[in-house]
Every structure is written in C-alpha cells, then in structure tokens.
Amino acid sequence: MSTRVSDFSLRLRDLGLGARVGLTGVVLAFTIGLGASAMHLVDHHQNRDEQPGVSLEDLEGAYHGVETTAPLVSALERGHPETLQQNERQLLLKWLKSGRIVEDYDNFDLGDSAPEGLLRASCLECHSRNATKGDGIGAKVPLEYFEDVKKLAFSKSVAPVPMRVLVASTHAHALALGAMSAVIGLLLLATRWPSALRNGLFALAGLGLVADLLGWWIARDFVAFVPVIVAAGATYALSTALSLALIFLELWLPPRR
Ligand code: HEC
Fold first, then answer.
1. Cα dihedral 39, 177, 223, 227 sign
2. Which atom of ligand 1 is nearest to the CA of 122?
3. Given ligand 1 and candidates 123, 129, 148, 150, which is best to mutate, with the most ligand atoms within 8 Å of its CB?
4. Which of 9, 13, 8, 5 is nearest to 256 (CA)?
C-alpha cells in the first residue's frame, strides 16, 4: 500500500456516530466563523470612502492609505470651466483647501467672494438640475445646494491601519487560520472525493492564506498588491468553504463501498 498522505486510507464516514457528530459540530463552527469573518470584513472596511459597500478604495485605504483629491479641486485645477476668471478660480481653490469648507460656504462676511455666490454665478448655468447648457451635467452633478457641493468638496486622506494593529492582526490570523486550515485540509484528505480535488483545494487554501497575509505587508508599500489581497482572500475563503462542504457530505452520505 502506498504511504502517500494523499492516499489516507481513513474515511471519515467510517468513524463512529459520536465522532461524526463531533466533527459535524466542528465543521459547522468553522462555517459560522467564516461567515462572521465575511460580515466583519464588510463592516470593518466599507465606510472608509464614505460609500456603502466595500470598494477597492476602502481596502487601499486600510492596507496602504489613500489620498483623494476632491472632484471640485481637480476640476478647477484642470482649468474647468474655461470661462472662469483666474481670481475667482483662486478664491474657490483657496476655500476648498482652507479647512473651512462648511463654515465659509455662505459666509456673509466674505461678500462677493463667498463661494456660494461664485458657484451660483459661474457654475449653475450648467450645473443646476434644470440647466439647459452643459449636456445634462446639471442633472448628474448639480451644484445648487450645499448638500450637492459638499459631496464633491472634500479631499480625503486615509491613513493605513497602524503598524501595531497590523502586527496584532497578523499574529492572530496567521496562527488561528493556519491551524484551522491544517485541520480542514487533513480532514479533507480523509474523504472519498477524487484525490485531485482534495489535493487541489488543500493547495489553494494554503497558498491563498499565505498570499493574503503577505499581501497585507507588501501592500503597505506597494498599492498594486491590494488586489492580490482580495484575490488571495477570495481564493482562501472559497476553497475553505468548499472543503467544509465536502467534509460535511463525506460525514453524512451513505458509505461508499
Ligand atoms: C458651460 C457649462 C459648464 C459650466 C459653466 C461649468 N461646468 Fe462643470 N462640467 C460641465 C460639463 C459638460 C462637465 C462634464 C465633462 C467634464 O468633466 O468636463 C462638467 C464637469 C464638472 C465636474 C466633474 C464632475 C465629476 O464627474 O466629478 C466638476 C467637479 C465641475 N464640472 C465643477 C464645476 C464648477 C465648480 C463650475 C463653476 C466654477 C463648473 N463646473 C462650471 C459643464 C460646465
């Protein structure tokens, strides 16, 4: 008989009822843990860019940090609209970079240079909801009220998670998930499924896990690695979920003779 571990002769289905019940509990516990991790991920990351849902930008913020320029600033800096007077452009940019965006928007003391008036005079012919000029930009990007303006006015700077948090998180995840994946992989080897499937899933889970953990660290310096974290994390989660399902089926399908 071959002694390769992938040829484990033990089949979980042949274990006693108590062991199968116990392992079922373990498999379900891992599944619950996996589900909770997914919820935690969404909850923890989604609000970094103030948009619902987890975006790549949220994750870039967490693992690398991001600087975004407010759309109003980029529009003005690229010379939009061409008709705007140079001094008015400077006044608007100064306001957007002043840290007093809310306070000064309609600050009466600023007189003619108050942003509200400048925007009304220079932008609303195109950027109001009923504007006839501007190819309908006013309906998509209105600038009529402060509610509209503030969505485009703030530049953001998101710092990545502090180093000590990353260290603590790596320590917890690497040890706990490493141990969990070893258990799941070994259980998977003791199932009836084709060995290519068992070996393949074990390989994907292990590689996904280590690539994810390394990605956290590398992405701190290289933002291009954030998608690697996403791909590795998804690979890990999916191969783990599938392994758990296959182990569950092994435990409760009729024994194969
Ligand atoms: C003559 C019409 C017109 C005027 C006046 C105008 N815009 Fe625009 N604006 C447009 C059009 C058309 C676009 C979409 C094409 C583009 O981005 O250039 C646009 C795009 C923008 C965008 C980019 C929106 C996005 O998708 O992020 C911003 C910000 C903006 N305008 C701000 C302003 C501000 C501030 C003013 C006044 C100082 C202004 N615009 C005046 C027509 C106008």
1. negative
2. 37
3. 123
4. 13
- Which residue bears the tokens 């935690």? 40
Alpha-carbon distance of 82 to 61, in angstroms, equals: 33
The verdict on whether omega for the bond into residue 255 sits within 30 degrees of 0, i.e. cis, is no
Q: Give the span between the Cα atoms of 111 and 118, in whole angstroms.
A: 10
What is the tens place of the pLDDT at every residue in 63-118? 999 888 999 999 999 999 999 999 999 999 999 999 999 999 999 899 888 999 99
Q: Determine if ligand 1 sits within 6 Å of the CB of residue 131.
A: no
Q: Count Cβ atoms below 10 Å from residue 115 Cβ, excluding itself.
A: 24
- Among residues 171, 211, 167, 219, which one has the least CA distance to residue 62? 219
Q: Whose CA is nearest to atom 12 of ligand 1?
A: 134
